[in-house]
Amino acid sequence: MDIRRHGVAIGIERVDNQFLLTFKAQGKLTHEDYETITPMIESALAAVEKPRIKVLFDASELEGWGLRAAWDDFNLGLKHGKEFDRIAIFGDRHWQDHVAKIGAWFISGDLKFFKTEAEALAWLNG
Question: Is 5:27 a contact under the CB 8 Å cutoff?
């Protein structure tokens, strides 16, 4: 039996107007995932004037995006792209580097791909 695991974990830490958004995706992201994620992000950012966001994205178990989920991601980037300081994506799949390059079109901050979580965290905190 082929069982495909799917899930999304999100964490939001805030210090003043600085946010660290931690995100782990497993399997293929869906529109339903964004229906859960987006209100959480919107709610956290709503009370803060000029929020600054750093993102740690664990893509080590990510298999991709559904078409509608990719559109949701695009819209989220357009709405909040200027608020992102740095996005660190880590994982070991070749295609993820391309996703990082495409994502850089929609955010004003830096976006980089790393092989390990330790490298990603060091860059975010540097």
Answer: yes
